[in-house]
Write a structure and sequence with these properties.
Elements (H helix, E strand, L loop, with lengths): L11 H22 L1 H42 L2 H8 L5 H16 L4 E8 L4 E4 L7 E2 L6 H8 L10 E5 L2 E9 L8 E7 H8 L8 E4 L5 E4 L4 H19 L3 E5 L5 E7 L6 E7 H4 L9 H38 L6 H25 L12 E5 L4 H11 L4 E5 L4 E5 L4 H15 L3 E3 L6 H16 L9 E3 L17 H8 L3 H15 L4 H21 L18 H41 L7 H8 L3 H12 L3 H19 L4 H7 L5 H12 L3 H12 L1
Parallel strand pairs: 15-16
Antiparallel strand pairs: 1-2, 1-6, 2-3, 4-5, 5-6, 7-8, 7-11, 9-10, 10-11, 12-14, 12-15, 13-14
């Protein structure tokens, strides 16, 4: 019997393996044929990724430079620093205020190492180093800095200028008014390491360089790259002139190395990144091992995928399912429970993105101009529903620490007001909306303004919708704590109406101050009033100084202060009345003890008590209704009447015994108070007794 023929690849697995090997061989041939094309295509892709990275660096760098510039301009035109730049001589208070503001600004900054002001009129340097002394420019230890600030026409008004200073490598930014050289200049020094890492965004691989338009190196990740820049710069200039493109790559003749370049818009100059081909494309060196590598990789992936599915997906999913069934709604299906979990995760992601935007970080997820809305509610679903039915442009809604934030596209002021009214109606919560913003930094500024407006909400009691435009009326108040002295003086004097009138004037001055100033002065007044109450033996009202935590209506503040005013005045009136009574008693006792002294008078009593006679007399009259002199005369006449009846002394002797040195004056006073002469009184009283 004939033997059966053995068929090659009779097993289906072997057939599939052979097919895979043939296909792999074909792929290998194609890979070898298109090696060069693939290499350039991959480098082009990496270059595009590098361009996107540099675009982000350039955008962030430009934004941060704008922040530095805006912050410097605010400081440049602050009142105390204007005086340092332009006025000479300065008073000690003006110089100290300028030094303090300059030092506070530098110490509160995360990027400044120092700041300097040059007064061109007086040729004086002021620095933020903490010493409250000025420096004549010719005697200043750093003449390079003096030259830079004095000869400012040689430099741009923004910088940066890389320099070596006493603090090390520094980037300096110079600010001045070019059309007014007598106004002086401001120089900011930024630590070079911070500037290069934060603004220029060098990669951690130390293979990047930033050069200006002349090919001079601004920053290099590694000093060894200096030679590469000088070597490649002519070629790069030729490339830029030939094709006019601001980005791309240049591959070396041997194909082993190259350069990626990108023209930076905000910072100016070019971002260069050198590379080695075998470093960025390591797989091309081992093309001959692709087939075996692919087979091993596929096998590993299959086995690993099965294990991953079992341990990393199925088992955790099963545990999640059991946990959801325990903690969730028993009527929910697994799909509903997972949906709820995903919704929570999505809400967290939205909150994270919103927080980044409100901190000034540009994410590229919204288009400008855009407007911000803050809602004092955590009902994000109700807010999203209200926004969806009212907004004509897409919106981003997320929970934030305040409540809920909404960013909508370009809308008119009327549409924003209507949208906020609808949100307020849907949620029953207050709604605040801002002006259109054209960048993330403006959005962050708007967020700060709305938070400040929220803190001032008690000024708008009952108003559900508030606009950022209200904050344009806020300002730093020139009111000072010493201006409250008339209020406290009126309260000490017991003048309630005067105190109310003074508080009304104070409130008028601080009403439009920013929240921090308003709270400071109001808390200062409340604290002082509590001290006055304690000194008077009164128990201060509970939680008076914590009023701002939940203050919704300014009327509550007015009512609280009026209550405190009334308490203090009432107690002051009682204390004053008691004080006057004690003072009058002391004076009466002195009169009773020394009325027979002809030298005793209102003036002598005041001298004995160490007081002004007019003031003492006014206090005595306020308590008794008569003057000290009148009380003295009455006491003397009363004692004279007693002596006329009890003794046989003559009228002249009696007048002398009760303190009258002039007999005729005694007769005048006696008749004035008694109505008759001393003799007539004596005769009348003796006659009646018989």
């Amino acid at each position: 019997m004939a033997k059966p023929k053995i068929k090659l690849f009779q097993n289906s697995f072997l057939r599939r393996t052979a097919i895979v090997l043939i296909i792999s061989a074909i792929l290998l041939s194609l890979l070898l044929a298109f090696f060069q094309l693939y290499q350039r295509s991959l480098i082009r892709t990496l270059t595009q990724m590098n361009n996107e990275f540099v675009e982000q660096v350039d955008t962030i760098s430009g934004t941060l430079l704008e922040i530095i510039h805006n912050s410097a301009m605010q400081t440049f035109y602050s009142g105390s620093l204007i005086k340092l730049r332009t006025v000479d001589p300065l008073t000690n208070a003006e110089r100290v205020a300028g030094f303090r503001d300059l030092g506070n600004w530098v110490s509160s900054s995360t990027f400044l190492s120092s700041a300097m002001i040059y007064n061109s009129s007086a040729d004086i340097m002021y620095t933020s180093d903490g010493g409250y002394t000025r420096n004549a420019s010719v005697a200043y230890y750093d003449q390079e800095t003096v030259s830079l600030m004095a000869a400012r026409e040689r430099h741009g008004s923004k910088g940066p200028i890389r320099r070596q200073t006493e603090d090390g490598d520094t980037y300096s930014f110079l600010f001045f008014e070019s059309n007014m050289p007598e106004r002086g200049s401001l120089l900011l020094n930024v630590e070079a390491q911070w500037y290069e890492e934060q603004l220029l965004g060098l990669s951690s691989e130390n293979n990047s360089v930033v050069v200006n338009n002349a090919g001079h190196i601004l920053v290099a990740g590694d000093e060894s790259l200096t030679h590469n820049v000088s070597r490649i710069w002519p070629t790069l200039l030729t490339r830029l002139e030939d094709n006019g493109r601001s980005h791309g790559f240049i591959l070396g003749a041997d194909g082993k190395s190259g350069l990626m370049y990108y023209q930076m818009t905000n910072l100016g100059g070019y971002y260069l990144r050198f590379f080695e081909t075998n470093t960025i494309l390591p797989g091309l060196v081992a093309v001959r091992n692709v087939v075996l590598g692919l087979l091993i990789a596929v096998s590993v992936l299959l086995v690993g995928g099965a294990l991953y599915t079992l341990f990393a997906l199925y088992l955790p999913f099963r545990a999640i399912r059991e946990a959801l069934q325990k903690d969730g709604n028993a009527n929910e299906t697994v799909v509903q429970q997972v949906d709820r979990l995903l919704e929570g995760k999505m809400e967290q992601q939205l909150t994270k993105q919103m927080d980044s935007l409100l901190q000034g970080e540009e994410l590229g997820i919204i288009s400008y101009p855009a407007s911000l809305i803050l809602v004092d509610s955590s009902d994000s679903e109700a807010i999203r529903s209200a926004v969806a039915t009212s907004a004509s442009s897409p919106a981003l809604t997320a929970l934030v620490s305040f409540g809920c934030a909404v960013i909508v596209g370009e809308e008119s002021a009327e549409r924003m007001l209507e949208l906020c009214l609808n949100i307020a109606d849907a949620t029953g919560a207050r709604c605040l909306y801002g002006k259109p913003s054209h960048s993330a930094s403006e959005l962050a500024q708007c967020y700060g303004n709305l938070l400040d407006l929220w803190q001032q909400r008690f000024l708008y009691a009952g108003q559900q919708v508030l606009s950022e435009t209200l904050t344009t009326t806020y300002h730093s108040s020139d009111f000072e704590t010493k201006d409250t002295e008339p209020l406290f003086s009126a309260l000490r004097a017991g003048e309630l109406d005067e105190a109310r009138s003074i508080w009304k004037g104070i409130f008028g001055k601080i009403r439009d101050a920013n929240f921090n100033d308003f709270r400071f002065y109001t808390k200062y007044i409340l604290k002082y009033l509590n001290t006055m109450q304690s000194e008077l033996g009164l128990e201060p009202l509970a939680n008076a100084t914590d009023l701002f935590d939940d203050l919704e209506d300014i009327a509550e503040l007015h009512q609280l202060l009026d209550t405190i005013f009334a308490r203090i005045v009432a107690e002051q009136v009682d204390l004053r009345k008691n004080h006057l009574q004690q003072l009058a008693t002391k004076i009466n006792e002195r009169i009773a003890a020394g009325y027979n002294d002809e030298n005793l008078s209102a003036q002598s009593i005041a001298d004995e008590m160490g007081m002004n006679a007019v003031y003492l007399g006014r206090l005595y009259r306020e308590s008794t209704g008569i003057s000290i002199g009148e009380a003295l005369k009455r006491t003397r006449i009363e004692n004279a009447k007693r002596l006329l009846l009890e003794t046989s002394d003559s009228v002249k002797e009696i007048a002398s015994r009760v303190g009258f040195s002039n007999n005729k004056y005694f007769f005048v006073v006696f008749k004035e108070l008694v109505g008759i002469t001393p003799k007539e009184f004596q005769a009348q009283e003796i006659g009646e007794s018989k």
